[in-house]
């Protein structure tokens, strides 16, 4: 290997084994990453937690496109592992035996020397302190002398002939390492054929490797297209890795993935002379929505010489079908933001002229210039009044409240939800209608169509408007009212909840609270609530300053990204911990020794609401959850005789029921909880609701903890264990056939009442939803099987098309046995998961032995 490096001093050795390219040495891995911005995939050993590559070790496995890029740059050499090495000669074997004998002897001498030095140090210490019994010391010296005599009498250690080892590994031999430390274990190395004799199986060009049939990538048109796209994006400064997990060919990062989150996925098309099919566009949009990432469709124009890349379309993922999310660089493109804002205004049913609109957001990077752009375009389109949050700050729940309170036409919200922020991260623009909720699909579809056809936008130019100071301003003929971003919303919460009860409970000092705003928009709201209104000390909140990049963190309230809060609750033994996301519509609830999953959280809030939340003193109209969410809230509705709704995923389905005054409290599996006080999820509302519950519970029984509230709920209603298994990128045809087979089984007359292991089938169907308000029908939302003990399994198929399909398996088991309440979720669900996989024959249909993702 040293000779090879001398012959190719500036090239990284890439070792080929079974068609896979590996880099074995750490210095080469560092060179590839630092100089060439290539990530590869560390694939050595097994990770304890399958989250990031840093849990793995050498070797580094390279993508084929990375290998091609390095070879074309003259930065690598390919080594054919199967033929590059040969057995050691007899002279080499004899030299090896001699080195081994010398190594063992040196190791033995070094060990004896170390023991003698240790003995001397101990003896000196004992004599110095004069604390040891002289007789005991004499006995110890006698034992050591006896050991030394035995060692001296022992024959010199000669290593056993390792011929048997060499026979098992015929192309391997050992060589002496170069370390100057005490000899010890030496790494296994191999002798490579000489470079000078021309017989070495190493190749420095793609052509030579292809002629030797060692490396033929890229050979097909698809492979050439992938390489062309990869090189084009790489040349623009992006880092990339495989995009299989997100349904694309590559996943793209603005910088090193150790510091940045991925921004978008890329799918490579190979038909530049043909228009995009409708299903490709639809599948791309759905994929972007499902994985909440922008999705880039690209094509490569392949010629006999150069391969040219064309970016055909960027399909942005939609949050609740109303939020256009993309990287900041996309919104910074000339006319991009103006085009989108103009499309929003043109899509308003009654038009923008004379309307009252609201604008604000989570304060992420690019918010300030976006607000000024919106001001100019709204003025140019005849908007009568624009309500702006001070400094452009408004949480999504606060914006929903202000829209409803001021009877505005709608609102333009600047947020990318829980996505990272910063110049190299994400930005988003969202439109909410006059009810304060996300725009329906009829509006968002119109916005999307307009963005493709608009060739103009109207604006009133002028200097930037001061949005740092509250008060009324004017731009052109439009009034601008800059409002306190926090006051109206906090005042509203004070009307909803009994702040006096909560303040009295927290004032005794026995119950500690910590809220983490993750440097998102809820920071000022949290300070106003917890410090000003509830009288807590400053240590009750953390990360409350909204920052354009969220402090370099990921503003997503879960056990991973809110790790500092999780650690604080555990280390400081805090009674209560909570967090919210970037725009304030999600929440996480913790307690000492307790994590509250979202399905349990909404059920517990619903159970206590009438007793502890003044807003609901007049009664609960109804409860609802998204179809995949755990059925814990169902039992609460039944016990209280509340009307109950099970709806498809999407907050707009809740909004219709709320507008019809048939729904009060609802939630979904993805940390979203809310009520009819607004038309959005509301993270702080859920947090204060939990404090209300704890205040009331401690009034009844002092010392009640979050864990106690959970246990009391389980004791009253039983526990719903819940988990979701995702099988991504499976064959669309086989997935559809599996679903058809399941549908046929569920429709047989004998299926109801049959036994699946220990579970008796009570109900089975393909979930469909007829909106009781507008009559709209949503079909094929998932096949479900319910059992007589309250457990259920759900199969949903999504992402069908040219990029494969994703099968989602939801598993939920109900138990009312107190001895099982504290069981591990996966252990508790294991029998039911087994029955679900057996019923579906999922492994046979997909060839998958395990899910891609478990949540």
From TrEMBL:
Compositional bias per record (Basic and acidic residues), positions renumbered to this chain: 115-139
Catalysis performed (reactions): O-phospho-L-seryl-[protein] + alpha-D-glucose 1-phosphate = alpha-D-glucose 1,6-bisphosphate + L-seryl-[protein]; alpha-D-glucose 1-phosphate = alpha-D-glucose 6-phosphate; alpha-D-glucose 1,6-bisphosphate + L-seryl-[protein] = O-phospho-L-seryl-[protein] + alpha-D-glucose 6-phosphate; pretRNA = a 3'-half-tRNA molecule with a 5'-OH end + a 5'-half-tRNA molecule with a 2',3'-cyclic phosphate end + an intron with a 2',3'-cyclic phosphate and a 5'-hydroxyl terminus
Keyword hit for Metal-binding: yes
Cofactors: Mg(2+)
Disordered: annotated span: 110-162
Keywords: Carbohydrate metabolism, Glucose metabolism, Isomerase, Magnesium, Metal-binding, Phosphoprotein
Domain tRNA intron endonuclease catalytic intervals: 225-298
Official protein name in the record: Pgm2p
Organism: Malassezia vespertilionis
Origin organism lineage: Eukaryota, Fungi, Dikarya, Basidiomycota, Ustilaginomycotina
């Amino acid at each position: 290997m040293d000779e090879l490096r001398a012959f190719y001093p500036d090239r990284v050795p890439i070792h080929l084994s079974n068609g896979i390219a590996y880099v074995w040495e750490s210095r080469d891995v560092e060179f590839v990453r630092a100089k060439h911005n290539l990530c590869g995939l560390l694939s050595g050993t097994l990770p304890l937690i399958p989250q990031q590559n840093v849990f793995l070790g050498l070797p580094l496995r390279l993508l084929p496109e990375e290998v091609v890029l390095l070879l074309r740059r003259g930065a690598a050499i390919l080594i054919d592992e199967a033929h590059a090495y040969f057995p050691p000669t007899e002279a080499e074997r004899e030299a090896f035996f001699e080195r081994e004998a010398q190594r063992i002897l040196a190791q033995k001498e070094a060990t004896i020397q170390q023991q003698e030095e240790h003995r001397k140090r101990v003896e000196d210490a004992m004599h110095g302190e004069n604390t040891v019994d002289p007789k005991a010391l004499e006995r110890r010296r006698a034992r050591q002398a006896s050991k030394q005599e035995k060692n001296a009498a022992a024959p010199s250690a000669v290593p056993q002939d390792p011929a048997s080892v060499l026979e098992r590994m015929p192309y391997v031999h050992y060589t002496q390492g170069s370390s100057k430390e005490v000899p010890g274990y030496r790494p296994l190395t191999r002798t490579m054929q000489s470079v000078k004799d021309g017989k070495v199986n190493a190749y420095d060009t793609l052509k030579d490797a292809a002629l030797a049939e060692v490396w033929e990538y890229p050979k097909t048109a698809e492979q050439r297209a992938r390489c062309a796209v990869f090189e084009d994006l790489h040349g623009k400064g992006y880092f990339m890795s495989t995009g299989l997990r997100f349904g694309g060919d590559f996943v793209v990062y603005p910088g090193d993935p150790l510091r940045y989150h991925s921004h978008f996925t890329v799918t490579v098309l190979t038909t530049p002379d043909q228009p995009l099919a409708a299903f490709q566009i639809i599948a791309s949009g759905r994929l972007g929505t499902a994985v909440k990432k922008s999705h880039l469709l690209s094509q490569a124009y392949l010629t006999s010489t150069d391969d040219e890349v064309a970016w055909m379309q960027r399909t942005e993922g939609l949050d609740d079908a109303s939020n256009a999310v993309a990287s900041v660089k996309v919104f910074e493109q000339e006319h991009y933001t103006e085009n989108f804002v103009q499309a929003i205004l043109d899509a308003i049913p009654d038009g923008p002229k004379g309307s009252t609109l609201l604008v604000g957001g989570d304060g992420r990077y690019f918010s300030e210039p976006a607000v000024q752009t919106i001001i100019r375009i709204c003025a140019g389109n005849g908007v009568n009044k624009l309500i702006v949050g001070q400094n452009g700050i408004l949480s999504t729940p606060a914006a929903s409240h202000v829209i409803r309170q001021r009877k505005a036409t709608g609102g333009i919200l600047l947020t990318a939800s829980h996505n990272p922020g910063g110049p190299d991260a994400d930005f988003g623009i969202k439109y909410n209608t006059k009810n304060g909720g996300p725009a329906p699909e009829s509006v968002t579809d119109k916005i999307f169509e307009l963005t493709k056809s608009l060739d103009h936008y109207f604006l009133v130019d002028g200097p930037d408007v001061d949005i740092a100071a509250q008060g009324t301003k004017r731009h052109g003929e439009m009034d601008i009212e800059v409002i306190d971003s926090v006051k109206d919303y906090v005042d509203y919460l004070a009307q909803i909840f009994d702040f006096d009860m909560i303040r009295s409970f927290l004032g005794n000092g026995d119950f500690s609270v910590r809220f983490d705003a993750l440097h998102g928009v809820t920071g000022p709201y949290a300070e106003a609530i917890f410090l000003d209104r509830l009288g807590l000390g400053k240590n009750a909140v953390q990360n409350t300053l909204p920052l354009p990049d969220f402090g370099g963190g990921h503003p997503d309230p879960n056990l991973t990204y809110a790790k500092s809060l999780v650690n604080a609750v555990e280390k400081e033994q805090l009674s209560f911990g909570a967090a919210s996301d970037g725009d304030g519509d999600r929440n996480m609830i913790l307690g000492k020794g307790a994590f509250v999953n979202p399905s349990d959280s909404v059920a517990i809030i619903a159970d206590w609401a009438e007793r502890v939340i003044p807003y609901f003193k007049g009664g609960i109209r109804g409860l609802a959850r998204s179809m995949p969410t755990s059925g814990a809230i169902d039992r609460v509705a039944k016990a209280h005789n509340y009307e109950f709704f099970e709806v498809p995923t999407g907050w707009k389905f809740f909004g219709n029921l709320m507008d019809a005054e048939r729904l009060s409290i609802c939630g979904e599996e993805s940390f979203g909880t809310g009520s009819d006080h607004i038309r959005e999820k509301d993270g702080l509302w859920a947090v204060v609701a939990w404090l209300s519950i704890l205040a009331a519970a401690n009034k009844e029984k002092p010392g009640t903890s979050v864990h106690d509230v959970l246990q009391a709920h389980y004791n009253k209603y039983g526990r719903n264990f819940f988990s979701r298994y995702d099988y991504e990128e499976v064959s669309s045809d086989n997935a559809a056939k599996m679903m058809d087979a399941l549908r046929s089984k569920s429709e047989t007359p004998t299926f109801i009442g049959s036994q699946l292991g220990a579970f008796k089938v009570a109900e089975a169907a393909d979930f469909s939803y007829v909106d009781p308000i507008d009559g709209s029908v949503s079909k094929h939302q998932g096949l479900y099987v319910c059992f007589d003990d309250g457990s259920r399994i759900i199969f949903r198929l999504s992402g069908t098309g040219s990029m494969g399909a994703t099968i989602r398996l939801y598993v939920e088991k109900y138990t009312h046995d107190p001895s099982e309440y504290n069981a591990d979720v996966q252990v508790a669900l294991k029998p039911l998961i087994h029955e679900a996989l057996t019923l579906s024959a999922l492994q046979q249909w997909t060839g998958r032995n395990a899910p891609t993702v478990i949540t």
